[in-house]
Write a structure and sequence with these properties.
The chain has 523 residues and is α/β, with parallel strands linked by helices. The chain contains 6 helices and 40 strands. Among the domains are: 66 residues, no CATH class; 65 residues, no CATH class; 99 residues, no CATH class; 76 residues. The protein is 20% helix and 39% strand. A hairpin with a 2-residue loop joins strand 2 and strand 3. It is elongated.
Length: 523
């Protein structure tokens, strides 16, 4: 087929290839571009050959390119779109629109394009440019599971002043009845499938599931109205048990802990309407609440292994009282006592001649005082006043975690956790393998099976504890360098300030935020 000819050259097409024959020299290379523009189906593939052919009279036609189809289709790798490429002038298409439409329809059928076909607007057609002809419908991922828990009221003491009386109140004990709602999970949704341009179904991804975190000993789950609901197995008090919602057993004492009750030790939470008398001990696995307005005087030991301790009144320790909490301590005031908290120590009014340790030590910043004794924290110490006019030595110390030691400890605990998780998987596999035939076991075999289950439960609990410890260490490391001692009103002479290895004793009254700046204490 002859595409172009004049006295100088002849351009022909044979079997999809373009040939040029020079009949007479003198045809300029730049003029050949006009031929290509008038014939968009020509695609040059060998410019050097064309240049050489035009310079000399040809003995035979020379191949210089390809003869493109007037219309072609390309499908994307993911089969989610198809593009049309047109190699004709707009005038040519308009001359025979029906033929153009037949060509397009034939191509769509040839490439099995069935879904998401789009109309072509001729005015937007550009030669050789991709035109979107079909678009797949992407699948829609299902809704993620939604978990809601019954929230423990915020444990934040409220300090009120009313005439001559001072109040130190907070919502501490949240009582729960057996069968009470503790939380629920709305299950993940299935999603909506999609289709590619071939009409093939693309399966939708399920929404992300979320594990329910609750204490298996005190709560259970049940399916209710297409939801998984957590309910309490027992009556007790709502607690955060190692990061899981749960209910702790509750021992209410309507009066004092003293001669009538003896020392108390309870695997749960204890609320005491009165006080703990001098020389007596209270130990609980969970929270301890002492509601008596007169506080505690001369008690020997008040210890919460995993929970918080709240003492509405003050502590008159007489040099012998020790308060220990795995979590937080909340107390109105403290005199000559020892307080140790795994988390924060919150004091309403003052600490006098006491030794206090916690992650942070927070005394009311409006009128709170730390006078005498030692306050040691990992993160923050805050008070309105430290020391007094008599320049009583008062030690405020931040012992922050060493980064290197902290990283090594995290690595050690993470390695131990990995080993423990591997053991848990093995034990779970053993239990699941045996469960279908456990009914045929002898007594010794049943005893061995129960021991395996107990070991599995114990390992899971230890793994949870390790995971919590690692997260706490990581949190502490992230806050290294942000430690501060904040005295909002008056730090009297005799106040000893120490952060890390840097320390100073104040010789003049001052206030403000004491911290390390460029490795030095800004005192």
């Amino acid at each position: 087929m002859v595409i172009f000819e004049n006295g100088f050259i002849e351009v022909t097409e044979q079997n999809g290839k373009i040939f040029v024959e020079t009949l007479q020299t003198g045809f300029l290379l730049k003029d050949f571009d006009t031929i290509v523009r008038l014939n968009p189906r020509i695609k040059l593939t060998n410019f050097a050959v064309l240049k050489n052919v035009l310079a000399n009279v040809s003995k035979t036609p020379a191949e210089i390119g390809k003869w493109l189809p007037s219309v072609t289709v390309e499908v994307s790798r993911d089969k989610m779109s198809a593009s049309l490429f047109i190699y004709e002038t707009l005038e040519t298409i308009r001359e025979d629109k029906e033929k153009f439409q037949r060509d397009v329809s034939g191509l769509l059928a040839e490439y099995n394009i069935k879904h998401g076909i789009m109309d072509i607007k001729l005015e937007s057609v550009a030669c050789g440019k991709a035109i979107l002809i079909a678009q797949g419908t992407p699948p829609i991922k299902g809704e993620d599971a939604i978990v809601t828990y019954l929230q423990i009221p915020e444990r934040k003491p409220v300090i009120r002043e009313d005439g001559k009386a001072d109040y130190y109140d907070m919502n501490f004990i949240y009582e729960i009845e057996e069968g009470a709602w503790l939380g629920e999970k709305i299950h993940a949704g299935p999603g909506i499938p999609g289709y590619n341009v071939h009409g093939e179904i693309i399966q939708a991804q399920m929404g992300r599931d979320v594990a329910l975190k609750y204490d298996r000993k005190s709560a259970y789950e049940v399916e209710e109205e297409d939801k998984t609901v957590i309910r309490s197995k027992i009556s007790g008090v709502l607690e955060d048990l190692k990061g899981m919602v749960g209910v702790n057993r509750h021992l209410p004492i309507n009066g004092d802990v003293g001669i009538e009750t003896g020392n108390l030790e309870f695997n749960g939470s204890i609320s005491i309407r009165g006080t703990v008398q001098s020389g007596f001990t209270v130990i609980a696995q969970g929270d301890i609440s002492i509601e008596g307005a007169e506080g505690v005087s001369g008690a020997k030991l008040i210890k919460s292994i995993d929970g918080d301790i709240f003492i509405r009144g003050g502590i008159f320790g007489l040099g012998q009282t020790r308060i220990e909490a795995g979590g937080n301590i909340f107390v109105k005031h403290v005199n000559e006592a020892n307080l140790v908290a795994g988390q924060d120590v919150n004091i309403g009014f003052y600490a006098l001649g006491s030794n206090i340790k916690g992650h942070s030590i927070l005394v009311d910043e409006r009128k709170g005082k730390i006078i005498g004794g030692t306050a040691i924290a990992k993160s923050v110490i805050k008070t309105a006043v430290s020391g007094n006019r008599l320049e009583r030595r008062t030690e405020l110390i931040i012992n922050s975690i060493n980064k290197q030691d902290g990283l090594e400890m995290i690595q050690s605990k993470a390695a131990l956790l990995k080993t423990m998780q591997e053991d848990i998987l093995q034990l779970e596999s053993q239990v699941n393998r045996v469960l279908p035939v456990v009914g045929n076991f002898t007594r010794p075999q049943i005893a061995t099976f129960e021991q395996t289950k107990q070991k599995l439960a114990s390992n899971k609990e230890m793994a949870t504890d390790l995971d919590r410890e690692i997260k706490q260490l990581m949190h502490d490391l992230r806050n290294v360098g942000r430690e501060e001692i904040h005295v909002t009103k008056e730090a009297y002479p005799g106040t000893y300030i120490q952060i890390g290895k840097k320390s100073s004793i104040l010789s003049n009254a001052t206030n403000g935020r004491f911290l390390l700046e460029f490795g030095e204490l800004n005192v």
